[in-house]
Amino acid sequence: MNEPKEPLPRAEAEEYASWFKALADATRIQIVSLLARRRAPMSVGEIVTASGVGQSTVSHHLKILAEVRFVLVERHGTSSLYRINEACVSCFPTAADVVMGNPVPAAPTCE
């Protein structure tokens, strides 16, 4: 099967770039890994304790991860719980394959 020899459409490239940019930080990788492994919503305080990173830093990184929908926020009154967005994270290896021009199976959309 011949794959197209054209570059990705600009909008698609920008979406993938935002995902790669969101993961271009070791602390954000740690947070995504923690949430993915816990498979349960966590508060900022729990993430701070588990990661050893300060509260303001964790909050900053969670905001970035939520913007690209790797992390979902559940608001409960004045507190928030964060959980991994399984659908979005499962798309990521596919994103890397698409960028590299490899054929990929159909993947869920990151919503």
Please characterize this protein's 3D structure.
With 111 residues, the chain is an alpha+beta fold. The chain has one domain: Winged helix-like DNA-binding domain superfamily/Winged helix DNA-binding domain (Arc Repressor Mutant, subunit A), CATH 1.10.10.10. It is built from five helices and three strands. It has helices spanning 10-22, 26-38, 44-51, 55-67, 86-99; strands spanning 42-43, 71-76, 79-84. Strands 1-3-2 form a three-stranded antiparallel beta sheet. The radius of gyration is 16 Å and the shape is elongated. GO terms for molecular function: DNA binding; DNA-binding transcription factor activity. Residues 8-104 form the HTH arsR-type domain.
